[in-house]
Amino acid sequence: MNQEEYGLVKEVTSQVLSFPTIPCTGGRYCVPGCPMSIQIPDLFTAYNSIKTYGPSRRYETWYKNHTRDGHGTASACIGCGQCEGVCPQHLEIISLLKNVSEEFDKE
Ligand code: SF4
Asked: Which residues' Cβ are closer than 6 Å to ligand 1?
């Protein structure tokens, strides 16, 4: 990689890192114990996609597909804390789900 290419990669990396996304690594340790059966990492994926690429019906559809068949929406969270206790990234999932809910549970 030459100096110009390196500079471009650095600039793009910096821009991507500046997006207000949730640093979930998708380990899914949080999912099995959720009493509301919320597919937490999948809802974070929908949220991160909107924050990175802008609003799109595609991400709304993704959200809807992961909040059907008995799986709770972000607003269904009852704040039990199970998920936060097992998250290796120590994410504040309860609070983050409120952000997700504001984005997707508008109806
Ligand atoms: S705090 Fe909310 S998302 Fe986490 S396990 Fe409890 S109900 Fe599920």
From this structure: 34-36, 38, 40, 77-83, 93-94, 97
Q: Is residue 54 part of a domain?
A: yes
Three-state DSSP class for residue 18: coil
Predicted local distance difference test score (pLDDT) of residue 107? 64
What is the domain extent for residue 76?
37-107
Q: What total number of domains does the chain contain?
A: 1
Centroid of ligand 1 to alpha carbon of 57 (angstroms): 26
* Closest atom of ligand 1 relative to the 33 alpha carbon: 5
* pLDDT tens per residue, range 22-77: 999 999 999 999 999 999 999 999 999 999 999 999 999 999 999 999 999 999 99
Index of the ligand 1 atom closest to the CA of residue 79 = 1
- pTM for the full model? 0.87
What SS3 class is residue 42?
helix
Give the whole-angstrom CA distance, residue 92 versus residue 79.
11
